[in-house]
Amino acid sequence: MGVYDVSPSLVALCTSQHPTARTFETAEALIASPDIDAVFVLSSDDTHSRFVHAAIAANKHILLEKPACLTVREIDDLLALMPDYDKTLFVGYMRRYAPAYLAARDELPAFADITHVRIFDLISEGRHFLKKSQNVLYPNDIDPALLARGAKERDALIREVVGADAPADLVRAYRGLTALSSHHISAMRGLIGEPARVLAAHRTNGGANISVTFDYGHFACLYDAVVDDLGLFDAMIEVRSNTRRVRIIYDTPYIRNLPTRLEVTDAGPLGPVTKPSALSTAMLSRMNSRFSTATSPKEQSR
User: Fold this and answer.
1) Quick one: 235 exposed, middle or buried, by C-beta within 10 A (0-12, 13-18, 19+)?
2) Which of 19-33, 55-69, 187-201, 249-263 shows the lowest per-residue confidence on average (mean pLDDT)?
């Protein structure tokens, strides 16, 4: 096991928790090491393409944080390397692997019967949750020149897509789409396939809020992202037919082990009936068992 980061304090924290981990002077040295079998690329978005290039050249397995890259050009360059690459490259769009998401695929109406899809992302940033739920290190020892260079490179990549003279709200909107929004857009594609086209897209609130309508032929998929400082997180995917509604509910990804929920509602002779899925029942049972065995109010509040 090895670790490299631009923050010395973060490296120190990692090695304190994993004393056998070897530290490296550069990311490239870690990737090239013959003792490393798989590389986790958890760095800023502007560095993804460079580090993945190096890891492919070193023939290492790769776990790549989202977004894979900031531009299609970078993706195309990496795809050109795939024919000679015999390892696994996995992009961490975690919402596609939540148990409720996987279970929802068996509950969906037939594609021909879908009448509407709604995806909602009300997002308050991680700082509203993380400091209240877990002990997180926020490094303050990163070289300012390195941060400035990374910001400049990231801005250049974004403007390669939106235009060199794009207004600030469009830049922010694209950053949002490639950041947290990318989780739900990826989940949408995994659940109902690729859309035929984008029918409409609009941004408000300085680019923090985004509304997109995707064309799936006989139905539309509406995606709404809202970013604010209210300290709430409300994310869900809803797929409807004339007689069924399937909802995947993501309460927040920032609280560790908080389960994703699944709701399936069918039209019944006396009105709509929401059935508890076996998945949701099992999760609630585990949560109730955990809380009932807690030994103090402090533990119960975790």
Assistant:
1) buried
2) 249-263
